[in-house]
């Protein structure tokens, strides 16, 4: 207690970090989950290359966590990376709100802690803190960027340190996740608002900070260097400049720039202008921005620009065109907007308290209640501690393929958990898994050619059916050839000409025996395991295949 | 995967990031003042860690 009174900030900060970490650790995934998790863990374990843009920082930090922690399987250790970084980001949000609010006193520390706690338990933040994903590191990089900006705006950082630190964090942040590039306008605004005296020194500093941006971006060196070594997970094989450009999505990003400036049509494709909630939200945000800019222009204009440019950029550009991509569909991309929103709430709370300090503890109570409410409603849907559905589905698919089988896969969820089991656990690595969508790339076709000795059609790599048939024709005399459920559906293969066995469909020779008794279904009928959209899809596949094979 | 080289990769990566931050805080001591001596120490450390990172990646 004495420590709390004498040094409230470190005590509250440490408390917040450990409280968020405890919540995340109680729900962290014990193994691989759906979507990118399996691929990212497999890539991290072998310092390989994940899907575009390769995610070098994740792979390096994931490898660190897989080496440092002596307990749990590799997937669990890499999942811890997200938990630790998300908890650290929440602690930095506390530090930022505290810096913005200024002054000292337990009530102010408690207010900042309760706001940061509420941020930590927001559904989308929590969901990315318990699985192997890149958004926890991205949040951490953004929080670090805002800390540096706030310290500079409060006059606690020299302009040399401000320019170079923001440049370096920006460079590393872009390597963590390329959406970080959307923070550049806010950084530039900060440079010129906080220390912007138009002199020769400013130009010199801008050039020096560009060097630090390039140094941060040079973490991308991981991609060509590792690709040239040839890890088995080497998506895009970026060992030359052409493929590196493709992996970094340079052309896609430049294409997206053609959509700038954001037009009313682009916005209309994403949101309904007749919805009163949109206007209420815009009015509230506009009013809040007006109050914050009036309060401290140098401090808040860059923060508002971070949120505005990032939010609009993600909503209108990165998520692509088309009305089907509604606001909030890819919620995980919006974690920075939630973080910046809580930081701006901290600024508004400061203004309210300066007007009348009587409400200080009432405000603490409101945000603490919000944190408790968010904790209680989000704990179950973000609890992956007993979720083995992706892990078991991958194992069941591999066990369907027969000894030394060739198994064609299609979607992320059919392939990535399977890659984890084969690449990391060496489970059923007698089965050769071929991912159909990658058969549109020459480097992948060449790899199949090298591994299986199949004469692939290189001139037209988009001819999926032709190359799939060539693999079948070459391999089927000696090895069983199977297609998973998603491949049959997406390739529109004729089920009547295939023989269903367990979860997969065979063309030609079918291995003997019934695979269903070998399958694991942990958590499928357990009501204490939350079933998201993907888990429900897998359960439907199980039911369909059971009927299809006459097992049920 | 060669684990000792993988450890070198991690040390090199965290090293050059940490040393760059060290360079910024050491070299840009005060507003308008550049500390050449500290810049040299931290600069060498950045280059050494960066080289370790690259060599480690080539061998891991």
Descriptive account of the structure:
The complex is a heterodimer of chains A (552) and B (60). The longest helix of chain A is centred in the first third of the chain and has 28 residues, at 74-101. In chain A, helix 2 (8-27) packs antiparallel against helix 5 (74-101) and helix 4 (56-68) packs across helix 5. Chain A is built from 25 helices and 5 strands. Chain A starts with a helix and ends with a helix. A 5-stranded mixed beta sheet of chain A has the order 2-1-3-5-4. With 552 residues, chain A is mainly alpha-helical. The model of chain A is unreliable at 321-329 (pLDDT under 50). Chain B has helices at 3-27, 36-59. Chain B is elongated. The longest helix of chain B is centred in the first third of the chain and has 25 residues, at 3-27. Chain B has 2 helices and no strands. The model of chain B has no long low-confidence stretch (mean pLDDT 93). Helix content of chain B is 82%, strand content 0%. With 60 residues, chain B is mostly helical. At the A-B interface, helix 4, helix 9, helix 11 and helix 12 of A face helix 1 and helix 2 of B.
Helices and strands, with pairings:
The complex is a heterodimer of chains A (552) and B (60).
Chain A: H1 2-6, H2 8-27, H3 37-45, H4 56-68, H5 74-101, H6 106-120, H7 123-129, H8 135-153, H9 159-176, H10 184-194, H11 200-217, H12 222-229, H13 241-247, H14 250-257, H15 264-268, H16 276-295, H17 297-318, H18 335-355, H19 360-378, H20 389-400, E1 406-409, H21 412-423, E2 432-435, H22 442-452, H23 464-475, E3 481-484, H24 485-490, E4 499-501, E5 504-507, H25 533-548
Parallel strand pairs in A: 1-2, 1-3
Antiparallel strand pairs in A: 3-5, 4-5
Chain B: H1 3-27, H2 36-59
